[in-house]
Amino acid sequence: MNDTAVKTIPVAVPVAVPVAAPVRNGVAAVRRKLSISVLRYNPQERGSVPRMQTYALEEADGMTLFIALNEIREKQDASLQFDFVCRAGICGSCAMVINGRPTLACRTLTQNLGPQITLAPLPFFELIGDLSVNTGKWMRGMSERLEGWLHMKDPNLDLRRIEERMDPDLADKIYELDRCIECGCCVAACGTARMRQDFVGAVGLNRVARFRLDPRDTRTDADFYDVIGDDDGVFGCMSLLACHDVCPKNLPLSTQIAFMRRKMVTLGWK
Amino acid sequence: MKIVYTDVLVIGGGLAGLRVGIGAKRRGHDVIILSLVPPKRSHSAAAQGGMQASLANVIKGQGDTEDIHFEDTVRGSDWGADQEVVRMFVNTAPKAVRELAAWGVPWSRVRKGDRDVIINGQKVTITERDEAHGLLAQRDFGGTKKWRTCYVSDGTGHAMLQTMSDQAIGSAIPVHERVEAIALIHDGARCYGAIVRNLITGELLAYVAKATAIASGGAGRLYRVTTNAVICEGIGGALALETGVATLGNMEAVQFHPTAIFPAGILVTEGCRGDGGLLKDVDGHRFMPDYEPEKKELASRDVVSRRMEEHILKGKGAKNRFGQHLWLDITLLGEKHIKHNLREVWEICHYFLGVDPVKDWIPVRPAQHYTMGGVRTRPTGESPTLKGLFAAGEAACWDMHGFNRLGGNSVAETVVAGMIVGEYIADFCDRAENEVAIPTALVHDFLRREQSKIDVLVDGRGTEDASAIKGQMQDLMTARVGIFRRGEDLGAAVDGLQQLLVRSRNIGLKCKARGANPELVTAYRVQKMLKVALCIAHGALTRTESRGAHFRQDYPRRNDAEWLKRTLASWKSETDTLPSLAFEALDVRRMELPPGWRGYGAKDYIDHPDTPKRAAEVEALKQAMSGAARFAVQEALMPYASLLPERYRGRNERIDEPLATEPLEAVQ
User: Fold this and answer.
1) How far is CA B28 from CA B8, B387, B618, in A?
2) Which of A18, B71, B470, B566 sits CB 3.0–4.6 Å from B526 for a disulfide?
C-alpha cells in the first residue's frame, strides 16, 4: 500500500483561524460572490448519475456552510440533501469533505475559505444522497462488533447508595476520550479504511481505549484483543494518522492507537 | 401494507426515549425506538452544563437535600408545577445520576483540599472534604440554593447520551434511524402505534404497539432565534394534538435562555455564570446586581432574560452589525478553567465568533431555549385522555417545570422520567387487558389517509412555498410571542398564524421526489408546527397574567386567584384553525409549598383565596412536628411515595445522611 490515497486528502485549509469579517463599524464592504460546487448523486433515484453542480450565492456576515447550504436549498434547489442537527459543532451530523478535507460543515465559516468551495459527501460510508451519508448505521454496527458499552460488574445496582469513587484525574482522562462525536471524519480520512471495509477505524479504537481506561468496565486486555487484535482492528492501522489531523474534537488519536497497539502486541506475543 | 409489531414503540432517540426503552426492555418487553437521526446526534447532546441531583458532595452543596431541590424547583416554576411530580423527580434524581455513574458516564469528581473559585466576582478559596474525594462534583446554577448541578466538564449531555445510547445498544434495542412518525394510530380512546415515514426511501409503514411513547423533545424551531437543534420542531406534540383526543399542557410556557451567542443563537452554558461569569452592558457595567440584589446573574432564567432585555430597552445594549446584545464576561475564570471546564464554550466562541473567551467578552442575547409545555400526562407518563399513549422528557407535561424550568433540571428530567415512565409502560404492557386487538382495517385507514396527504403535497396543484411559510411563522413567533408579550401582539400573532395555517393547506412542491425529499418534509412538518405554534400563541393571549417565563406587559402580576391553573389545548377537528383551550386548576389545599414570593423577580402577586389558609396549615404542621425527621414532616404535608414505581422508592444516601445497612430487598 502506498499512502497517496491519504496524501490527496489533507489540503491545508485554515479552518481554525477566523479572519476579520468584511464589514466593520457600519462601513459596507463589497460582499463576495461564492461559488459552491456540490457532488450530487441520489442512489435512490433511477437514472441519477454522480455530477458536480455549482451554486452561486452572495456571502453574508458570519456565514457558515450550515447557513449557506440551507439558503441554497430554500432559494435555489429544494432537492439538495445534507445533514445538520445541532449546527453548533457538537453532534457530528454534518461532516463532509470541504475543499478536499473531511470536517464539520456547521462550524466552517465561509470567510475562512476562498470564493470557490467544493463539497463532497464523506467517502467510505453508505451514501444516502448528495452530501448525506449513513454514518449512524456504520457506527451502530461498529459498536455492536466491539461491544462498545460499559460492561458492568454487577448490573443489579442499589441506587440509594453513594456512588463508587473515582480519581478526579482519571474521570477527566476518560472524558477526554469520551468526547468523540462519531462524525466519521477519521474513517473518511483513513488509508486502511479504503482497503478494508471492516476496519473499525480510529473511532472504534478510541472507543476501546476509553473502556479499557475505565475501572468500572470488567473486561481485560484479552477480551479487547478478541475484538481488535487483528487487521480489521489495531493491527490494520498503518500509522498514516490522517485521523488525528482531521479530528474536529482534537482527540489524541495517534497516541491512543499507538498505545493500544503496544498493549495488544504484548498480548499477541504470549 | 407493511406492519411492524412491537410491545413498546418509542418516538425519539434522545435521553428520555432511550431510558424509557431500556426500562421497558429490562422488564421483558420488545421495544423499537424511532429516531430522525442517529440517537447520539439527538439534541440531548447539546446540554452542556449539568444535571441537578441533591448529592451534597461538594462543600458548597453540603446540607442539600431533596427538600431544598423541591423548593427551588417549585419556586422556579412560579408555582405552576405539579408538586407531587416535583417530589417524585427530586427523590429519583440522585438515583438517576448514580445509575449513570455505574453505567459509565465520566462525571467530574470532587478533589479534596483547597481550590479557588469565583463567587460574586471575587476569588474565594474553598476546601473540599477528604470524605468527598472522588465522589461526583456539583457546580452552582441559577435559581438554586445549593451547588447541586452534577456535570461532565461542559459536555454533560453529550457524555450522558453516549452512555445511554451505548447501554441501549448493549441491551440490543433496535433503533430505526432516519424515520419519522407522521401520525398516531388510534380509535379515539386507545392509541395503537404510529404511521411512520422512512426519510431515505419515502416508504410509509405502520408500527403497531401496545404502548406508544412520545419522547421527541422540544419545539424551539417554531422560533427564528433558538438554541435548539434543527430537529426540535415540536412534531411529537403535534402528533398527540392531531388525535383530537390527547391534549397539550401549558404550551405558552416557553423559556428563553439568557446566554445564546449573538446572533447565531448557539447556547453557551449557564455553567459560565454558575462558575462565576458576569453579565455586562455597553459601558462594561455589571448590571444584574442592580435588578436582582440577591441572586444577581444566578436568578432563574426567565428573570435574567427579562432583565437583560429590559436593560437593552434602556439603551444599555452593546451594538454590532447585527443589532444589540450584552456581554458575558468569563475572563475572570482564567485560562485553565475555561479550557478545561468550559471547553465547548471556548470552541463555540472560537469557531462561530472568532472570539477567545479567555481574553474577550462574549456577545450574548436571550434566545428561545426550552418548551416547558408538552403532551399532558399523568405522573405515570400516560395521557389521561388517550389510553396507551405515553410521553416523557421535554415533549411531555407531567408537569414538573410549571412556567419556568431551572437550569440542570432538563437532562435530569429526561433520565428520571425515562426511568419512571419506562416502569409504568412495562406495568401497562404486563396487564392482560392491554393486549392489542386492532382491526387491520383501522391501520389501513390511517396509512391511506397519510399517504393521500403526501400525494396531495407531491402531486397537487398547491401554490404556497413551504419554507416561506415556515420562515414567516418563525418571524411571527420571535417578534410577537417572545419574552415580553402584549395582548395586541399576541392577537396579531394568532391571526397571522391562522392565516399561515390556512395557506399551509395549499402548499405546492418544487421537488416532486417521493423518496428523500427535504422540501416535502418541510411541507408536512410546517402544517403540524403551525398547530403547535397556535397552541402557544393562543394560550399566551388567553392567559391574562404573568407567571414564570410567560410575561404579559399588560398583565404584569402573577394572578393566583384566576390563573393558578394549567392550560390544556386540544385540536378538535382537522378544519379548525384554532386549538380548543380548557383549564385545570391546581389545588392549593394539597400543596406542600403554598404560593409565595420566589426569592427573586417581581414581589407583587395576587393570592389564591386558599393560600393563606394552606400556608397557616403548613406552618402549624411544621411547628407541631418540629424535631421530627424531615421525611416524616414531608410525608405529613404531601405524601407522594405511592406515585413512584417500587423500584425507585427509598431514601438517598449522602455523606452527612448515611443509610442504615439493610439490604435492598428489605426496603422494597
Assistant:
1) 11, 21, 43
2) B470
pLDDT at A212: 96
Strands (E) in B90-169, as ranges, are 113-119, 122-128, 138-139, 149-150
**Catalytic-role residue among B87, B148, B224, B273:** B273
Best of B162, B344, B423, B644 to mutate (most A CBs within 10 Å, chain A): B162
> Residues of B with CB below 8 A from A84's CB?
230
Give all strands of the β-sheet with B138-139 in edge-to-edge order. B51-52, B149-150, B138-139
Chain B contacts of A164, Cβ < 8 Å? 101-102
> What averages of pLDDT result for each successive group of 10 residues across chain B (668 residues)?
94 98 98 98 94 97 98 97 98 98 98 94 95 97 93 95 98 98 97 97 97 98 96 98 98 97 91 94 96 92 94 93 93 94 92 93 96 98 98 97 96 98 98 91 96 95 96 96 96 98 96 92 98 98 97 96 98 96 97 95 92 97 94 96 95 93 51
Q: Does B203 touch chain A (CB under 8 A)?
A: no
Catalytic residue list contains B178: no
Asked if B118 and B276 count as a contact pair (C-beta separation under 8 A), the reply is: yes
**Mutating which of A69, A104, A158, A249 best tests the B interface, going by the most B Cβ atoms within 10 A?**
A158
Task: Kindly determine whether residue B518 and residue A93, on different chains, have CB atoms separated by under 8 Å.
Answer: no
pLDDT digits (tens, 9 = 90+) for B542-575: 999 999 999 999 999 999 999 999 999 999 999 9
* DSSP symbols for B511-567: ---SSS-HHHHHHHHHHHHHHHHHHHHHHHHH--S-BTTBEETTB-SEEHHHH-EEE
CB B300 within 8 A of CB B404: yes
Q: Are B295 and B76 in contact (CB under 8 A)?
A: no
List the single residue in A with minimal CA-CA distance to B36: A85
State how far residue B619 is from chain A, nearest Cα, in angstroms. 30
Q: Which residues of A touch B519 (CB under 8 A)?
A: 73, 78-79
A74: nearest CA in chain B?
Answer: B467
Supply B37's cell numbers. Answer: 437521526
Q: Which residues pair with A6 in a beta bridge?
A: none
Helix (H, G, I), strand (E, B) or coil at B189: coil
Any bridge partners for residue B179, and if so which?
B198
Nearest CA in chain B to A178: B159
Q: Which residue has 445511554 as its cell numbers?
A: B164
Quick one: which of B315, B316, B311 has its CA closest to B288? B311
Size of interface A-B (CB pairs under 8 A): 222
The answer to whether the beta carbons of residues B520 and B511 sit under 8 Å apart is yes
Tell the burial category of B609 from Cβ atoms under 10 Å away from its Cβ (0-12, 13-18, 19+). exposed
Cα angle B392, B393, B399 (rounded to 5 degrees) comes to 80
| Partner A contacted by B259 (CB < 8 A) | no
Question: What phi and psi values does residue B571 have, to the nearest 5 degrees?
Answer: -120, 100
Q: How far is B392 from chain A (nearest CA, A)?
A: 21
pTM for the model stands at 0.95
The shortest C-alpha distance from A1 to chain B (Å) reads: 33
Measured CA to CA, the distance from residue A13 to residue A19 in angstroms comes to: 13
Q: If DSSP codes are grouped into helix, strand and coil, which group holds residue B100?
A: helix
Is B257 in the active site? yes
Catalytic, out of B87, B257, B325, B538: B257
Residue of B nearest to A133 (CA): B200
Measure the CA–CA gap between B626 and B249, rounded to whole angstroms.
Answer: 38
Cβ atoms B207, B9 nearer than 8 A: yes
| CB neighbour list of residue B214: distance below 8 Å, 6 or more residues apart | B11, B12, B236, B237, B239, B240, B375, B389, B390, B391, B392, B395, B396
Between strands B323-329 and B278-280, the pairing is antiparallel
> Closest to A175 (Cβ–Cβ): which among B159, B175, B231?
B159
